[in-house]
Design a protein that fits this description.
single chain, alpha+beta, 4-stranded mixed beta sheet
Amino acid sequence: MQKLDNKAARALFMDRHALLEQPSGSAKGADLLNLIQRLGFVQLDSINTVARAHDMILFSRRASYRTNNLKRLYEADRALFEHWTHDAAVIPMEYYPHWHLRFQRDAKTMRARWSNSRRVTMEEQFGAVLRHVRDHGPVSSSDLGKGEKKGTPGGWWDWHPSKTALDYLWRSGALTVIGREGFQKRYDLTERVIEEHLCPGYQEFSSADTIDWLCNAALDRLGFASSGELAAFWDTVSPAEAKTWTDQALLRGELEEVSVSCADGRIRKGVARPGTNDVALSLPPAPRRIRILSPFDPMLRDRNRAERLFGFHYRIEVFVPGPKRIYGYYVFPMLEGDRLIGRMDMKAHRDESVLMVKAVWPERSVRWSQARTKRLESELDRVCRLAKLDRFDFAENWLKDPK
């Protein structure tokens, strides 16, 4: 069995998430696509207190990144497609053939919610929406359903039926999102967007082939994992399927068992490629600069894993009532070297073109210093350029005691 101490495990995990290197270099075109391929996908989110999550994710790894770079790669170059992993995300187009299984599974899951009578109603709605898109071109949900009432038969989440139909047809692969306007999705027929050689009927993978690809790809991006973590990465493979894949790969000698030391000294079992410990021990130290991460950063997406490796407990409080919040509505974790050193409550005041830092809470193990403040100020300068703000400022008594 391989053994990974905590420092080596953190280094390997950060390396696989492109955070062990300096955040420099090109962030356009093929270079940006290469970064997204390394990550696997980039989660999309509409909250824009400073910059949207997908922009913060890419900026934290390439400081030259600007928001139009992703838009061009996605909407003009068609190098990415949008679908679901654990949430809505942009995904490299070359992975599209392995999403056929996801289309099938999402369709089955969504249909299972409907009664027989409701299914007939929705089938009619699907046909009407597809005909409209075929005849009139790309649409958003606001283009359809005029006069329909929310919550009418066929809808879910209090949506009108046409919006329900759009979501189903996208999730099941008949429609493709071609971009967003004001963060509202626009849909077109898949046959008009996705190249034929990527579509069902041209390049087919069996379920077993896709499960094998998804599990391998997840492990490559995690470095080490339990079967449950492999299943959760893309959120397409079931835990049972990931367990079977892991067991078979161990028997073939393609994987080895690994014990990973957590930040609190506990041991976590999983699997890894042979030689993973040697790879981890050979990695360079992490950059000393402070980086402000999105709450939806891939390194933090699995909150439990981040807590085990870094001793950093983080929960987003967007949906927590104001009086019950511990830190704030949308608080950004801060990375320095290979440590998560605290969290920050900041907001862009666009009318004044200022980034206001309301509060910073260092972790209990972190002694805040003037040198850290200087490194933080350098990062805030860079964030201002991403968010198109003139300057940053600190609120009075911004440095808080650890909680």
